[in-house]
Specification:
There is one protein chain. This protein is an alpha+beta fold and 176 residues long. It has two helices and eight strands; from the N terminus they run αββββββββα.
């Protein structure tokens, strides 16, 4: 009984503490704008945005028929409120969904960030901009060890109590 309670609590703790990181195309919609001959949609991941590695994906479509444009040049620039700049070229090679242009970026700080996306396809060129808020990096899991260990410790204490009660009852029955 005690072993099964301990195993169950260990399994529950493992499921609660396991948080897979996925940097997939898509994510949170930050902007959709029709400008010039393009419809430009910007996605970011992870959600919520935190300082550290992020994925910024851009979908470029023809405004005329909403067909995805697969031969565009897409450049991304991010600027924080304190002046820090991050720039990259978004490519289809970096994207899992080959209809998008993706750029893996590293944001060094939290706060408000603005982004500018330059898109050039053929002779047409346009720039769109927007902003988003970046939260500070989450605390490491080790900072929460007390909260994670608490249920297991309580189950262990309860199991020990039950064992002592059974032993006491067995002693009382044998004494009679």
């Amino acid at each position: 009984m005690i072993r099964s309670c301990l195993v169950l609590s260990a399994v529950i703790a493992a499921f609660v503490t396991y948080t897979p990181h996925s940097y997939a195309d898509g994510g949170t919609l930050q902007l959709r704008r029709e400008t010039g001959p393009f419809v430009i949609t910007v996605f970011t991941a992870p959600a919520p945005m935190t300082a550290g590695p992020i994925d910024l994906s851009v979908m470029v479509q023809s405004r005329e028929n909403l067909a995805p444009l697969l031969d565009a040049d897409v450049d991304v620039r991010l600027r924080s409120a304190n002046g820090t700049e991050v720039a990259a070229s978004a490519t289809r090679v970096n994207a899992q969904n080959k209809l998008l242009y993706a750029a893996p970026l590293l944001l060094p700080a939290s706060g408000n960030w603005t982004f500018e996306i330059d898109v050039k396809a053929g002779t047409a060129r346009t720039t769109v901009s927007g902003d988003f808020h970046v939260e500070s990096q989450p605390r490491p899991l080790s900072a929460y060890w007390g909260y994670i260990a608490f249920p297991a410790v309580m189950i262990l204490i309860f199991a020990m109590r039950e064992r002592l009660v059974r032993n006491r009852s067995a002693l009382e029955v044998s004494a009679k």
